[in-house]
Specification:
Chains A, B: Keywords: Cytoplasm, DNA damage, DNA recombination, DNA repair, DNA-binding, Endonuclease, Hydrolase, Magnesium, Metal-binding, Nuclease. 2 copies of one chain form a homodimer. Chain A has about 190 residues and is α/β, with parallel strands linked by helices. Chain A has one domain: Ribonuclease H-like superfamily/Ribonuclease H (Nucleotidyltransferase, domain 5, 2-Layer Sandwich), CATH 3.30.420.10. Chain A is built from 5 helices and 5 strands, in the order E-E-E-H-E-H-E-H-H-H. Chain A has a 5-stranded mixed β-sheet. In chain A, helix 4 crosses helix 5.
């Protein structure tokens, strides 16, 4: 399975394509950073990111897109721009019918380094090791995009199974409730049943 | 000039088209709310909004798009979704070469009611009065979208003139600085000049 990882941002948007193989084997297909000029207006910055991401989707044909989930913890203004960049990426994926999953930074760090609190250097080092890269992808956003794609490849089968199990449990609960309601109605109105 | 006002949101996204006439005359062309199901995934909600906004742009052919500027003041999670909805609207406008301007809620309130702290009821009442509407546009997001379009029609000429004046002033400052630098260089190195 091929995954496009995206570390969204208006100034620098990291893109990384990773192929998953048997077991935990992963291979780097492409990695780069899209930049948009800070003095351009928001709409044109989003357009620049959207166009480039669509170009990557056409060129590399990923089966899924993994985007970093943003939290407005530090700088709210930056977080808004980051959320918007992630939004246009999700939109481009939805237009092509590609599944999009958002992963938190700690999920990504935990997936590649074993610790949700790993620092940038540790994440970059693990990305290099896992993908057999001789040089570190620069800037950090590029390495983060690859880490996101790896995280997705490793987490997704588990996440999908969990979601399926939850859906089954919810369906069983619904059926059970409907039966209870029918039984209660029947007890109240025994004549209505034939 | 025809303006599409957008009060962005994932659950309810207000859309309003207003024509500006001579002076302060304004006319309501269309108003509605796009809803996306809260249990759908983010990418598909954004796609739903984007598709509907593009349909409106094709149908009503506005000359500009006015979007509410979002602040992460109350609920950060909601604000992120709102920012993303606004982002895909800005993207759709940029794809069509339409100018997009973001107005803050207080700019919009001040434009239609004279007070930046007007409440929802006051904004709705003024929107009805200014557009000669017999019934209040519902929900409030629809009225807000119309208020945004009116705000844009009234503010934009002033904003554009101000931006032009600022650009001229910046250009003059640049020219002046360049002359100063040249004079300083000349004073240091009189032989270099011919």
């Amino acid at each position: 399975m091929r995954v496009l990882g995206v570390d969204p941002g208006l100034t620098r948007c990291g893109l990384g394509v990773v192929d998953g193989g048997k077991g935990r084997a992963v291979r780097c297909v492409a990695v780069d950073v899209v930049r948009t000029p800070p003095d351009a207006d928001l709409a044109h910055r989003l357009l620049g990111i959207s166009d480039e991401v669509e170009r990557w989707m056409d060129k590399y044909k990923p089966a899924a897109v993994a985007v970093e989930r943003v939290f407005a913890q530090h700088n709210v203004r930056t977080a808004m721009g980051t959320a918007q960049a992630g939004g246009v990426v999700a939109l481009a994926a939805a237009r092509r019918g590609l599944p999009v999953v958002f992963h938190t930074p700690s999920e990504v760090k935990a997936a590649v380094s074993g610790s949700g609190r790993a620092d940038k250097a540790q994440v970059t080092a693990m990305v290099m090791r896992l993908l057999n890269l001789e040089v570190a992808p620069k800037p950090a956003d590029a390495a983060d995009a690859l880490a996101l794609a790896i995280c997705h490849l490793w987490r997704e089968p588990m996440r999908a199974r969990l979601a399926e199990a939850e859906a089954r449990a919810a369906e069983m609960a619904r059926t059970h409730k409907a039966r209870l309601a029918a039984a209660a109605k029947q007890a109240k109105n025994p004549g209505a049943a034939r």
